[in-house]
Amino acid sequence: MSDATTVTPSNTSGGQTIRPEEAAHFGKLAKDWWDPKGSSAMLHKLNPVRLGFLREAIDIHWAGDVRNTRPLAGKSALDVGCGAGLLCEPLARMGAAVTGVDAAPENVAAAAIHAEGVGLDIRYIAGEIGQQDLGAFDLVTSMEVVEHVADKRAFLAQLAARLAPGGLMVLSTPNRTPQSRLLMIGAAEGVGLIPKGTHHWDDFVTPEELADLLESVGLVMGEPRGIAFSPMKGLHLSADLSLNYIVTARAA
Fold it and tell me: Which family does it belong to (predicted)?
């Protein structure tokens, strides 16, 4: 059975990075997170693109067999900012022992119910990542999260502290460009494709800024891939980084 709990804070690492207003915003979306036509519809469209990048990164990092349906068997994975588990569940199906952490208790409750319903054993925890005594993980992911935290460097340091030796980190985030302001906030939030108030353009991080932040916490960023949109392809991996991008990171 999936276990959704709020772990008692530990004083061993990290400070506050959660913005309460951000946690409250996403917590309100918990009830229909798994509805592909609901308020998280864009995440359902984005998730296969992220998973395509992630699977390739896993195979390259651990020199795996691309035909293996469980490339994470025997490995542990941590997804921070997990929402209701859209990424945690595929990671579990890939064989990982998965822990999901989210700032909103409503999200981890919804995640645990859904995981139990589909027969997946995933540990879910609500709270501040830096205040949980979780140990280290082979794979650490955090998708569309760094733009929402109060202290980006502190947050990335907390992620780095959870990465086991030889481990892999994968992050995705919107780029701070005129295109992202126009399309992600002006257009997508304007017409309801993304819930209004989800994004604050000034908090977006450029690839150069993210590389510097990761370097400051002892990690080296891989070559970023863009997540672009076109009417013909929909959301897809691209050399165009102007809207959104996804990267790997490893210990320096």
Answer: Belongs to the methyltransferase superfamily. UbiG/COQ3 family.
Q: What residue numbers does the annotated binding site for S-adenosyl-L-methionine cover?
A: 50, 81, 102, 143
List binding-site positions: 50, 81, 102, 143
Q: Residue 172: which of 93, 98, 248 has the closest Cα?
A: 248
- pLDDT for 25 equals 58
pTM of the entire predicted model:
0.87
Is 22 within 8 Å of 148 (Cβ atoms)? yes
Interatomic CA distance for residues 125 and 236, integer angstroms: 31
Contact 61, 87 (CB under 8 A): no
- As a whole number of Å, the CA-based R_g of the chain is 17
What's the pLDDT at 121? 97
Q: What is the mean pLDDT of each run of 10 residues along the chain (252 residues)?
A: 39 57 61 78 88 98 95 98 95 98 92 96 94 94 93 96 98 93 66 60 93 98 95 93 96 93
Tally of structural domains, the chain = 1
DSSP 147-214: GG-S-HHHHHHHHHHTEEEEEEEEEEEE--SHHHIIIIIIIIIHHTSS-TTS--GGG---HHHHHHHH
CATH number for the domain spanning 67: value is 3.40.50.150
Closest to 171 measured CA to CA, from 202, 210, 132: 210
